[in-house]
Write the structure tokens for this entry.
Amino acid sequence: MLSCLLASWGLLALGASSLAALIAGIVVLDFGVQGAQIGNQTAIYSLRAQARSRLTTAYMVSVFLGGIGGSLLSAAAYGAGGWTAVCAVGATLSAAALGVWLGRSGRTSELALREGPARVETR
């Protein structure tokens, strides 16, 4: 899904001169964001069942803080370089997130194999 986010910024950059590219970029961006959200929540729910509420709260707080940071960066980028700069910032952040995910995905797989799936206790 992070690759969709990265691709969407290219389409959104083309949207400066093409309505079709802008619409396609919005659709791909939404697809990537929703997919990442589902993936992140799936990862959270596979952790400690008794801590799901706290983990979800921490996750959503970080999402909102990230939104604030992204809004500040995009406003500064728009002031400095217009729509192209906003798209460059979005693409840079998406590429960084993809790089972090690729770097961590091998370690996460190793942990999952060692520890096995999360167990939900029923009473």
